[in-house]
Structure formats: C-alpha cells, structure tokens
Amino acid sequence: MMNANEPLILAVPKGRILKEVGPLMARAGVEPEADFYNDTSRRLQFATGDPGLEIIRVRSFDTATFLAFGAAHLAICGSDVLMEFDHPEIYSPVDLKVGRCRLSVAEPIELAANEDPRRWSHLRIATKYPNVTRRHFAARGVQAECIKLNGAMELAPRLGLCRRIVDLVQTGSTLEANGLVEVEKIAEISSRLAINRAALKTRPNAVNMWVDRFREATLAA
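Structure (tokenized):
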C-alpha cells in the first residue's frame, strides 16, 4: 500500500507533446524544476514546487505501463495509448484537449482510387496499434493481420511489407510525402489526464485535488 507521506508521481510523455502540455501543467499549478524542460538532460525524475508531487519523463507508450502497475499515480496519456493498453487499473477522467490528431487507416493513393473499403474481408496492416486495429476491424467482420512496427510506418507499403497502415495523422503531410492517403478514421485522439485506481482509493484527496486542478486548467485554456 502506498505511504501517505510519499509524493505522488506524475508520468509525462517525452517529445513534442511537452510544448502543448507545459502551459497546461503551469495553469494546473505543476511547476517542475528547470531541468525538466532541458532537452539535453538525461535525468528522468524531477521535483516540483509542490513537495507532494514529483514528475517522471517517459516515452509516450510507457506512460500507461507506469500508471497501470502503480509506479506512477497520475499520467498524461494520449487516448491512443489508453485505447491500445486498455488496462482496468487506469481511469482517465479529464480530456486535456491538447495533442489532437486522429488514428486512421492509410494506403497508397493508386490503391485507394480503385477499391471500396466496405468490401474488405482480410487485411494485412502495419501499425503500432495492433490491439486497437484488430478490435476495430473485428467489429465489422474483417480479419486484420497486424505487423507491429514502432516507426517508419509509411515505408511498409512502398517496400511490400503490407498494403495498408494504421497510424496517427495530424496534418496528413507525411502520408502525402510518401504517396499515401487516409481511407478510414478509427478514432479522434487527444491527451488525457489518467489516474491509477488504487491510488485513487488509498489517497483520494490528493489525487482528486490534481484531477480538479487539471480540469480547471483545461477549462481556462
């Protein structure tokens, strides 16, 4: 059981999302030590202006893992990560309305011009999201064979690994540059404040305080 005197741990994803999340954290009263925003720093854990809260900086896909197993008590997670991980110990009460994009199916432009997605029955798809992809297509009776890739998804159709991909899309410029086009949207994506259910039960006042602060900060944006 978590010690009530220990600081809560907030997991925050590395990378470009920090530019959007930083001002939101500030409005919520989260003031990390200066080194947190230093891109060259190799540190991963940081104090804040509140002795009851510390921050860890991890890969976006790892935020849910730290949270689900209790290594973090709160996390800023993309809804794509939460959908893929789908862990019962995670509760995500606040849509932070940043990091907006969509999870979509894409394929070569020439292929999209000559087929109807409603006729699909079996697909081979490269994606970072095999669980979400399989669930999405299974719901309409389509069998999806997923090839797990963690990056460079757009190369898969060009090099013959598969004909389609499922990936995050923001502007579509990367797809266009690689001769691909969106043909189906799976979900709208944004960042959320997520919490560990066990932490909510053992320290409800502390956890709910931060939930309320992030909710108010989002409304004030």
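The two ends are 36 Å apart (CA to CA). Residues 204-219 form the longest helix (16 residues).
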